[in-house]
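Quick one: structure tokens for this chain, please?
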Amino acid sequence: MRHLSPLTARRRVVGSLAAALLCAAGLAVPAAARDTGDTGDTGDRSVTEAPFTADTKLPGGLALTPPMGFNNWNSTHCRAEFDEAMVKGIADIFVEKGLKDAGYEYVNLDDCWALPQRDADGRLVPDPKRFPNGIKGVADYVHAKGLKLGIYTSAGTKTCNSAGFPGALGHEVSDARQFADWGVDYLKYDNCNNEGVDAKKRYIAMRDALKATGRPIVYSICEWGENKPWEWAADVGHLWRTTGDISDNWSSMLSIMKQNLPLAQHAGPGHWNDPDMLEVGNGGMTDTEYRTHFSMWSIMASPLLIGSDLRKATPETFEIIGNKEVIAVDQDPLGRQGEVLSSEGGRWAVAKEMRDGSRAVALFNETGTAQSIATSAKAVGLPDADGYTLRDLWQHKSYNTAGRISATVPAHGTVLLRVSADDAWAKNPPAVELGLSGAPLVEAGKAATLTSKVTNLGRTPAQKVSATFGGPSGWQIKATSPSTASSLRTGKTLGTSWSVTAPPGTAPGAYDLTLKTAYRSPSGTRAESVLPLTAHVVVAPPAGSSAMGDLPWMSTVNGWGPVEKNTSNGESAAGDGNPITIGGVVYAKGLGVHAESAVEYYTGGSCEKVTALVGVDDEKESKGTVAFEIWADGKKASSTGVLTNADPAQSLSADVTGAQVVRLVVTDGGDDRDSDHADWAEPVLNC
């Protein structure tokens, strides 16, 4: 007999109450993973299709699951390629590539669709060069595909673009009427040039104007989280931005994710936290990082608005954004946002309750090296059971587990699972965790010893287990202990030592390794697991004191542009920094970074101390809030509090005795990353 945990029991009661409230409001309780609405022409939908109810200030029946679609801004900004042909092309691709069937329905226009001036009657005028058939013509085309059209304006006198396109402040009623007449289904309402008018008043004014049109329009509040809209906007908009704008880099995505994760309690059907649009496919991150981006947005029940130009998208991009099993996590009609279970050392476990009683579980690795990340069926809220079905949503394979939910996750990667306490678990092969002890750091021409581990997580035994290890051409990799086992019971491990040698003269840098295991279930079903790894060919640091700005690093992550050696961060281009300056004092040596930032150095166990003067660079005047940290082999060795531009340089040092890797980290100080230009002035490594 299975016993519900108190958390599960409480949530089931809450879910029943939510269903009752929906019924009381005259709304249908969702019966499928996604309420896609009409599949035909949506251009002339009647008001009764999404009724306004007496006890709500928003149109009912909209955004019961997080909106899915496309927005052009991340890929085009205001450039000329944003035009009618692009919008129609995206609508065509939605249908041709199966994205519409996967749940994507909104094709949204961002800034720059209008002329800079209203007409003589105060009406908005679509740019005739970009949109020769007007917005109505584009809407008709999109609706004919069974899709919906979105549009953009700002809750200010002008939009955010420097060209000064007209905003809707003071024009809410007439602009909303125009949008409705054109057949618009979605409005993104930005926050620029707001004249200091109270945010709630501005966003409520447009809500009421949209409602007065009688047309069901999803209302997206884009005020960047400045006034904590999650605390007041549930009856104002269907979704609200929780952060500033995303950029197409790891640091930006990570920072935004961390700001959005704590807000889980505020999300639900018809009112969603919005951590901004997707960057998948725009080229600034690896495919591993884009899978993390898509996985974490899905487990956070975030809107999924594609931000890349699908006319140029790679097969890998379509594979990521078209993963229906991951999309089902985002679109689950229970409407939970995933909650953080643990995050120690950048090893994140996040769980989301699903309507069928299962749990989606994201094991996310923030760090730059592979990490083992674990939780359990009990911790995610599943009832006691003899075994559980564990479904890998990226590998599309099912396994059984005795209760441990664990994986070795590649750097910046995410393993996304769906775990169920069902009666079918025994038909699946046992889950195994494939891992490696220690970081794969290799000095050219010298043998390094690495140890692989294959651990059976399943309730059933893993049989005929073998491990193999591969690397680049010319590398010598051989097992120095047994690499096979006849059987592994639950919790047992096959450990294998490997001698790994990079050829003499191999250049320092990152190289791909692949660890594999193959095994059989008791019924004879063959299974395998593959773990991609990164080996770093490193150079031992010189003895004595070395300026870290002159040393080679292993890896860097930076929030804006590249890390700069011996200059400030500057802007987005390499080499555009200025002299490092903190509180008016100029420093000749150091590192110029931008939060969120991490710079890793190989120290090989031969160094003792890191010292530096740290602070916010003067190049951003009064802006910027950051905090500095020094890490040694995955453990924080030293840190500052939050520093601002008003603070003088602060001395920071750390004992790194015996560490193989030292990491210099700058965080955003707990707020947005805007203008967080930080300096490691005169950093010295003593070995």
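DSSP finds eleven helices and 39 strands in the chain.
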